[in-house]
Each structure stands twice: as structure tokens, then as C-alpha cells.
Amino acid sequence: MRTILDRVYTFAGTVSGLSIVIICLVILTRVTGRWFGIVIPSSDDFAGYLLASASFLALAYTFRSGTHIRVSLFTSRLSKNALLWLERLVLTIAALLVIFLAYQLTYMVWESWVFEEVTSGYIPIPLWVVQLPMSIGAVIFAIAVIDSAICSWLFGTPIPKSEEEELAESDTIDMPTSVRNNHE
């Protein structure tokens, strides 16, 4: 199960990255087209839709890789046992909030589909198509937070930390000899 979940998180992160690349291509096409007097209709709209997709699809991947912003000024002073209980509490509350977010976004997609809403830009697109990646990203993020909460409660697994956070919390920092000699 762990392998399947990690692949889902990685796939969502990859699609998020591809969305960013497509945003760059859309903007580049728009700028290039402007030089030749060609107007690319709704390019701003498409870039915005892709940005929303990229943002939501990246949530689970960044959470599981420990790259969400954390303020550890308070938590770094706690004992390991107190930190584990605080993380369990935070993960449980976060799971409830993210489940609510995923439900509301999914409901919004369903409503847009039922009422056959379209975007208000120059090129009308069914609104549910634009909203669906956000909903999928929120659902995958909810699964990631629930996954972390369950692992914390059952196995005592801490919230993933970034490499920088691990380095900052380590007792010693080993510097390569070449760097050490340059600073002396």
C-alpha cells in the first residue's frame, strides 16, 4: 500500500510540474505572438487554470517530501514524546480540515457539471473541467494527511522533514575540507 500511495503522490507532483511547464509555454507563446501581432485568446485564463491545477496537485507531494513551510521555533524545543503528541493532534485536525476542503471542492465540481456552467473567458470551457484538477489535488492531499495521521497514531511516524530542517536540527554540521580551508 505504501508504494501505491507514494506513486500517487509522485504522479500528482509530476502533473503539477508539467502544469508549470505548460504555463511557461502558454506565456512564451503569448509574448512571441505579440511580437508578430498575433493575439492568443484566453491565454491569461489558461495560465490561471493551470496555476490552480499545479498548486493543488502539488500539495500531497510537497507534504510527503517535507517541503511544506513549517515554523519549528516552538516545536524544536519540545521533547520527542511531546512533539509526537503535538504532531498527532495537528495531523488529526489537519485531516478533518482537508477532508472538508476536498468535499467542498468536489461538490463544487459536481454542481458546475450539473448546472452546465462555463468559464467567463473569451473561450468558454465547461467549468467542471477547470475545477476538476483542484478537486483531485485536494482529495490526494487529504489522503496524504490521513496517511500521515494514521502512521503517526499507529507507528509513531513523525511528519516528514525537509533536508534543510534535518540539517538544522542535527547536532553537528560537517563541512567539506575545501569549504573549511577557504573560511580559515
Keywords, please?
184 residues; mainly alpha; 6 helices; 72% helix; 0% strand
Query: Biggest β-sheet: count, sense, barrel?
Result: none
How far the N terminus sits from the C terminus, by CA atoms, comes to 51 Å
Number of helices: 6
Count of folded domains: 1
- What's the shape? flat
Instruction: Supply the helix-strand structural class.
Output: mainly alpha
Structural Rg: 21 Å
How do the SSEs run, as a string of H and E? HHHHHH
Helical proportion? over 70%
Overall average pLDDT: 90
**Uncertain segments:** none
Q: How many DSSP E strands? A: 0
Strand content: under 5%
Commentary on this structure:
The chain is mainly alpha-helical. The chain has one domain. 72% of the residues lie in helices and 0% in strands. The chain is built from 6 helices and no strands. Helix 1 (2-35) packs antiparallel against helix 4. The longest helix has 35 residues, at 80-114. The radius of gyration is 21 Å and the shape is flat. The protein starts with a helix and ends with a helix. The model has no long low-confidence stretch (mean pLDDT 90).
Brief write-up:
This protein has 184 residues and is mainly α. The protein has helices at 2-35, 43-64, 80-114, 127-155, 163-169, 177-182.
Note the topology.
Layout: H1 2-35, H2 43-64, H3 80-114, H4 127-155, H5 163-169, H6 177-182
Helix pairs in contact: 1-2, 1-4, 2-4, 3-4
